[in-house]
Amino acid sequence: MNRWPVTRQRRRSNPTQARAGLHRHAELAPYEAMQAMAHADAGEAMAEQRGDWAWELVYSRRGSQFGDMVSVQFSFDLPWQKGRRQQPQIEARQREVRRIEAERDETMRRRLEAVEGDLAQLEALDAQRARLQFSGMALADERIALAMAGYQGGRSDLAAVIAARREALEARLRLLELDTLRAALRVRLTTLIVEP
Fold first, then answer.
1. pTM above 0.85, yes or no
2. Domains defined along the chain, listed by start
3. Are β-strands 69-76 and 53-60 bridged in parallel, bridged antiparallel, or unpaired?
């Protein structure tokens, strides 16, 4: 007779889902804005390499003693000594883009390693809990039944029954501990994901 409630916890973490949500992790969120800014800075530096021009037309109505005036103004920038002035700025901005991308990739790699480790640990805890629940608890119940039969038959004392029940309670506490560890891992796998 099984005195312990059997709880079936089939809610398993989906490893594919945990890996797919990794790019939305809160630790990776700032890199998108940082990359956009670095690309904009690099684009601005490259734009400074090309010449810019403008024109302006002004009409002025002056007093009666002077005639009206029209003026036209042209202006243009000449990129002077591109190799010494603009090229180092462009290269510096492009290095910054590459640095941010490398930093993001490194953070992504570290997060992936952490997720893979958590998934492996969760799988091990799931297997350990299944073993304990389906074979360990049945064995504990059999020990209680045998100790009780021995006590009722006069072949053993009450201490054996108490010891068997204590072992069954310890196994049940271990199940609860495993459930707590598994829940903590699931929370760690699903939190800090930025919702779209």
1. no
2. 15-190 (1.20.1600.10)
3. antiparallel
